[in-house]
Amino acid sequence: MSGGRTVGLAALLALAALVPFVVGSFHLLQATMVIVYAIALLGLNILTGYNGQISLGHGAFYAIGAYVTAVLLDRTGVPYWATIPIAGTVCLLAGFLFGLPALRLEGLYLALSTFALAVATPQLLKFRALESWTGGGQGLFVPTFQAPFGLPLAWDQWLYLIALAIAAVLFLLAWNLLRGSIGLAIVAIRDHPVAAASMGIDVARTKALTFGVSAMYTGIAGSLGALVAQFVAPDSFSFLLSLSFLVGSVIGGVASISGAVFGAIFIQFVPDLADQVSKALTGAVYGLLLIGMMALMPGGVVGFLQAVRRRWAARQG
Amino acid sequence: MDAFLHQFLSGLATGGIYATFGLALVMIFQATHYINFAQGEQAMFSAYVALILIQAGLPYWAAFATALVFAFVSGVALERLVVRPFIGAPVLSVVVVFLGMLFIINSLAGWLFTYGVQAFPSPFPPGLGNRFLSGHEIGTILVTLATLAAVYLFFRHTRLGLAMRAAAENPEASRLVGIRVGWTLALGWGLAGAIGAVAAIMAAPIIYIEPNMMAGILLYGFAAALLGGINNPWGAVAGGFIVGVIENLAGAYVIGTELKLSVALVIIVVVLVARPAGLFGTSIVGRV
Amino acid sequence: MSALLELTAVVAGYGTSQVIHGIDMSVAEGGIAALLGANGAGKTTILRAICNIRVRVSGVIVFGGLRIHGWATEEIVRLGIGHVPEGRGTFAHLTVEENLLLGAYTRRERAAVADDMRRLLDHFPRLRERLAQQAGTLSGGEQQMLAIARALMLQPRLLLLDEPSFGLAPLVVQEIFRILRQINESEGVAMLLVEQNANLALDLASDVYLMETGRIVLSGAPALVRDNAAVRRAYLGY
Questions:
Q1: Which of A139, B123, C49, C118: CA 20 to 30 A from A39?
Q2: C157 in contact with B, Cβ within 8 Å
Q3: What number is the ipTM of this complex?
Q4: d(C-alpha B132, C-alpha B134), whole Å
């Protein structure tokens, strides 16, 4: 990364770290959820944008992450911060295991299969046999916690900072991964799988691993999300969540890292905005905004910014 | 045995609905290579139009026909106004556009017709039924088969149907024989809209009409289309009947009705993993 | 004879690259013009430019007195231009008969269409044997015949042919060219022929255009090419 860019990002991070101290509780919650969604969307971008595997079911991994945290906190003495990496690991495995049969499926078929996963998730979570663990339809409460070392931070401020820190690490990891040789392999598979294979790339293993990593990101987001909401219930993880993730991913810019942030801002705030514009026709307003965004920025926000930058550079040169 | 037969035949009735809807999805897919995620909402809206007309006093079949005309015209309008500007856009962007249409139509329906669940009349008297199928289920099978037959005849034996098949297969060559490909696309959307409306109107008496009624049918229709092989319209039809029967049998014998949607989908996914091109689809050999 | 098709200062290309750098050419009413040149000279691009398929075109293109530059392909075709493209463009999943019927899609007179189909099947008896077969299962030569027959079903005033001999056995090619001459003589259909097989083209055509990297370098009667030793050596090999 160029020196200027590093300084810029560091400044952004510093600004972001100040947020808990300048906004009230409600807005802090929203800001935390933007971070959570950004992590979730980054996971989806890695899989769908960079690797070309369409997922309409990432809500399922979000749900798994959320429930891992909730169940561990409900049933065991595992401290809250430890549930996050555990949720990530579980989802890494789950994603990899789902990615294996998914190798046989392309495009639409994969989309349907992942969508089936999304639809099945709330039903599975309500499944009677698992009720004692998952709390069935009623869900589970997720307790709050205190900032460590007696720091003078409220619970939600501390949680925001944790989320921010985790996001920073995960984004850096993704950036590193994607610009290295693995990243090249991932994109090569998306653009021309046959050529990729003939270059010696283990397509199957890369695709399954990418699925796993992608699920891990979204699972970590789910875990954080559970801590924010302080509650998990099957109906919060319907297929609408998965569709929401897809929408956010595309709006932000599906094959980008920063797109995840733009997408997260969109899916966190725009539905409420639509509701404020018209209570009776919220969905219609939202739908119009989606179509409008695609008309103006078919490549997402990031695509649009890139085009603007190119045109500006051409004018300078 | 009786119970099994009842579930099986009932499954054929709902399967007919999935088959009809799956056909609409495949028609649009063949012509455009997109899955119209808003197909269900278009169908639902047309069903509401039929309901309003029936409640206003129009005889059932007149309302049915009018609703189909509405579905056709609105399908053409949607293609010309919303879809055409996005031809050539990235696939995922088009998916988002379709989702946008879904939300708009759904919200409009809720606003115009309220979100409350309403009963929808069936034109088939209960007396038509026997010990295996209700009157409406038999009627549904008949209407479904009639619709599928009409579609078949249209595509096989009319000039316009031939032109639409040609345009779906090879738009450029179609232009070279003078076919106005843009309009055949619009027509295809109109036809798919009408076919989808038939499915919704047949389903409404069973699942009750409300703005979210088509979500499950959209999913099953999609699954049926993929199960049959996405580039094979009659595969979608077969897939629809298969899905209907699997859903019913799974619900009755494997797991309760709560999980039958998941089980049906899991079965479909398993089939796809075993046969990635669907049961009757031809795998597309990619050119290197 | 007046020009049926006239191109003036036509420039064409794909995306940002330009392939045709300004050409003038014409096809006479009822005449046969051949477009010769090496691979990449731009011959196919000219045919595409006339029908406005996939290319960016500027310049003047007049057909039967109408300026057709910028028109949609299907509207140009409806004026009476039949195009047998590179790759034949047959509808592989439709039957031979359906392919032929589609050729006449824009015509209303059913009886005349049926007559034409009969006549064309007389010209190409092999197609008659395979009417109910899927077009994709036909051999290369048969598909070429189908493509030509389909274009003729339009009752075109001008037939554009892109390398009709490509990939076909010599005997089949001879047959096709014999039929083309016959159709031109009996029905007065004008033709613009793009061919790599210069000998065949020179036998059939009344006007020849020689292209090199997007420009016309020689034009005139076929004798011009045959009498010019350098050109003859380069394009005819002797």
A1: A139
A2: no
A3: 0.91
A4: 7
